[in-house]
Design a protein that fits this description.
Blueprint lengths: L4 H5 L5 H10 L19 H10 L6 H12 L4 E2 H11 L5 H13 L3 E4 L7 E4 L5 E5 L5 E4 L5 H11 L10 E3 L6
Parallel strand pairs: 4-6
Antiparallel strand pairs: 1-3, 2-3, 4-5
Helix pairs in contact: 2-3, 4-5, 5-6
C-alpha cells in the first residue's frame, strides 16, 4: 500500500516518526510521487533508526556510508564516498556503496544532484539545495530555494507539475565569464 499525501500529513513531527508510524500502520513503502522530507535526521543514529524502522538492516557498510555523509558538508560522488569508506573497511565494494546510497535515497535520507558533465553527487537530504554551474570556468554557486518559488508556483498552477530545482544544476555563465 502506498502512502497518499493526506496520510503523510498525519505525521509531521519528524521523519523518524513518519517512518515508525508508517511501519506500525502496515504501510510497506512510500510512493516516489510523494517524497518524504527528513525534518529532524540530525545524526548518524537518527538515520540508522529510520533505516531500522523502515525494515532495513544496519550493516557496517551502511553505517560507514552514513558517517561519511555526515562527516563533511557539501556533496560527494559515489567514488569519493567509496574511497572514504574503504579507509576504514577496505573490503567494502563500490557496488555495496551504490546499493546503500539507493536505499538511503528511497528512505528520503540522501539526495543526488547532477552538477554538469561529471558523476552525480550525493548529500544528506536535509542539506540539499539548488545549484548554478558556470559553463566557462566550472564555478558552482548555491542557489537558495526561494529563487525558484515563482517558477515552482507557476509550473504547479499551469501544468500541475511539481518542480525539484535540486536534482539538476542550472548551467549558465558567472559574472567573471560573461
Amino acid at each position: 500500500m502506498l502512502l497518499s499525501l493526506p496520510q503523510m500529513r498525519i505525521v509531521r513531527k519528524s521523519y523518524l516518526t513518519a517512518v515508525v508510524d508508517a511501519c506500525r500502520l502496515g504501510w510497506s513503502m512510500v510512493s516516489r510521487s510523494v517524497p518524504v522530507v527528513p525534518l529532524e535526521l540530525s545524526s548518524v543514529e537518527d538515520v540508522l533508526a529510520a533505516v531500522r524502522a523502515g525494515g532495513g538492516r544496519i550493516t557496517t557498510a551502511k553505517r560507514l556510508v552514513v558517517e561519511v555523509l555526515f562527516a563533511e558538508e557539501g556533496h560527494r560522488a559515489a567514488e569519493e564516498i567509496t574511497d572514504a569508506v574503504q579507509v576504514r573497511a577496505p573490503e567494502v565494494a563500490m557496488t555495496t556503496v551504490y546499493r546503500n546510497l539507493d536505499e538511503l535515497q528511497r528512505l528520503g535520507v540522501v539526495t543526488h544532484t547532477h552538477l554538469g558533465h561529471g558523476p552525480a553527487v550525493f548529500q544528506l537530504a536535509g542539506r540539499a539545495h539548488a545549484h548554478f554551474v558556470c559553463e566557462g570556468c566550472g564555478a558552482q554557486f548555491t542557489a537558495p530555494d526561494l529563487m525558484f518559488a515563482g517558477l515552482a508556483r507557476r509550473a504547479r498552477e499551469i501544468l500541475g507539475f511539481r518542480v525539484d530545482p535540486r536534482h539538476f544544476a542550472i548551467v549558465g555563465r558567472c559574472a567573471a565569464c560573461s
